[in-house]
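Objective 1b. Sequence-to-structure analysis of DUF2165 domain-containing protein.
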Amino acid sequence: MSERTTRGGLPVAAVVLTGIVALYMALVAFGNITDFGTNQEFVRHVLAMDTTFRDEDLMWRAVTSRTVQDGAYIAIIVWETTAAALLATGTVWWALRLRRDTPGRARTVAVAGLLMVLVLFGAGFLAVGGEWFAMWQSKQWNGLDAATRNVTVAGLALLVVQGARRRADG
């Protein structure tokens, strides 16, 4: 096996994983745009904390303004769309440069997109939604399992991308 062949495996895996996350994020954003009301209700219920245990020590955190709730939902969609665009761009650029084994800016763009996914689902859904707004208490409006899956896949992709970088650089 040549050095080129053994070095090529990890960068190819990084491109494929980044592409999978790009496709997923594009479908999520597309779904939220074309079926706006479904996840709009999810965001409204999580922020309003209306399906939690309604503990008076926590309920002061609830956001009941529809304007603020809808603004948060639109911000989520913009974030998802931006992440999808960065990931798709990074995937295409990187795939085009694989033969030269110098992904350069393509990898940087992919990493930015993966970090955006981690921030959205890790900080946004797990930390803020899950803990601050007590989403874990809701049987009807609990997105923690989905958020955990997204953090896991994006985190794995980021580790592979960074591993591919070390292999290509070293």
